């Protein structure tokens, strides 16, 4: 007979495994993608940008703006815990801190690039719930330390073999809800079915929301790590 | 003429449509007020009370696979006075990448290395920065550059350059020799820290050994850039003396707001006594150059000496004094399409102050408008009050295609 400790560990391991599967449901471990981001702010014009990105594992990410023309060439690079921004008008690479909102939207750099939730959070399954009619597993993620953007994340994944993410809620240390993410529009893209629309809504600035729609995805590529070197940004590539 | 031909040739090449291309056209107006000053006694620069420069700017980039051509420059004319339009290429280069490991770039190009935001003591390659060019659109140096990335955590840059030693973007000419420079920069990423080592030297330039460190510290991106330079940009040249230059600062960005603070120690800078002596030498030398009691050769020699002295503040672009502070703040998306920004450089050694407030407006996805003011304030004896410019207004409209 298993002891309660072994049972607890088994549940925790399951939660971690579910979280791992859920993380690669949208973008695979290694991927090239094109996305459109629409940033909505109350009383302000809607801002739409398009970008191409590369991702390798949990630590390497590179995104380059392709549209609108005035932002073309701007690039973000993530390598480990470091982030850099390339400003084409100044042809300068600037190291930026982790708090910067990605491209002025509601996603933080960490949301876009820091894809390793399993490394940053301890996950536990807290129940089964229906979210907008979809049967889900509800996971609670607790930050392992204070270096990550959120202290706690409530995370819902489909309660089936896909473990597609459905919804996330992000909380501060004081328990305040900062923003919610809804993941939807499952359809074939890049050779398999996957969610293609991510909508982040701020719970602090009413009406502020950012929508990311994947237009193209190619998983399973072999990407040279040197593509994610800061020198590549300096060369404007 | 040669510059114009190069610009035209590369411009034509850039019109050969590649798989991706960018074109930016713009109009810049630079309006400034002048005053008699120690660097322009007797108005030797021939400035009017109000000067008005108009520039038509062009930037183009064409990409064919691993190859690219980049051209940018401007045509400049003076409003209200029969000046002849002049062409200037800010950049005109071709680049080819041999996969992610090696790339070669040849032509007039900006180098822009170093983590410092306002000062980069490890970069003495390009012509010195024009302190009044708030858009930071520096002119490049004619150079061949090879970048090698043998591993993801290390990058090495070899550079050979032929570069002006005076700012090329000032509203008045500042003559100076052309330097031939060789440089090597090795950049490492170690434990989430950027570390770079730089060596450079050549003719009409100083030997530089530099180090550059940057990393994240809590919400801040902090940086330290330091270099030891052999010889001085100021007088006397002291070619056997080594001068340290250190920059330390931080940048924080959150949402559409960012701010930074940076301290600069210029080991090359003059002491109070040396600076006072320099200020006093300017009117004395000028007086000799127009003294009718002196023979013509003596007046001519004094005139040349005065112009040499007056050119010193522009010689290195790093400042005349020792201690400086730079602060910047910017906020985007105010009331939709507006942005605000402000920069200040405070000369701690002489209480000089340059303020550069600005506003930007994004009319559409294809058009931006920027308006910046430049105010040279602070103590009347400070280095920022030596020059003939007291205030300036720079307006830029850019169209992106």
Q: Biggest sheet of chain A: strands side by side, in what order?
A: 6-5-4-3-2-1-13-12-11-10-9-8-7
User: Which structural category fits the helices and strands of chain A?
Assistant: alpha+beta
| Count of helical regions of chain A | 4
Distance between the termini of chain A: 59 Å
> How helical, in percent, are the residues of chain A?
10-25%
Estimate what percentage of residues of chain B fall within beta strands: over 45%
Explain what the structure shows.
The complex is a heterodimer of chains A (237) and B (401). In chain A, strands 6-5-4-3-2-1-13-12-11-10-9-8-7 form a 13-stranded antiparallel β-sheet. Chain A is globular and about 50 Å long. The relative contact order of chain A is 0.19. Chain A has four helices and 13 strands. Chain A has 237 residues and is α+β, with helices and mostly antiparallel strands. With 401 residues, chain B is mostly beta strands. Chain B has an 18-stranded antiparallel beta barrel. In chain B, α2 (272-289) packs antiparallel against α3. The longest helix of chain B has 18 residues, at 272-289. At the A-B interface, β6 and α4 of A face β6, β7, β10, β11 and β12 of B.
What brief labels describe this structure?
heterodimer; A: 237 residues; alpha+beta; 13-stranded antiparallel β-sheet; 13 strands; 16% helix; B: 401 residues; mainly beta; 18-stranded antiparallel beta barrel; 3 helices; 18 strands; 12% helix; globular
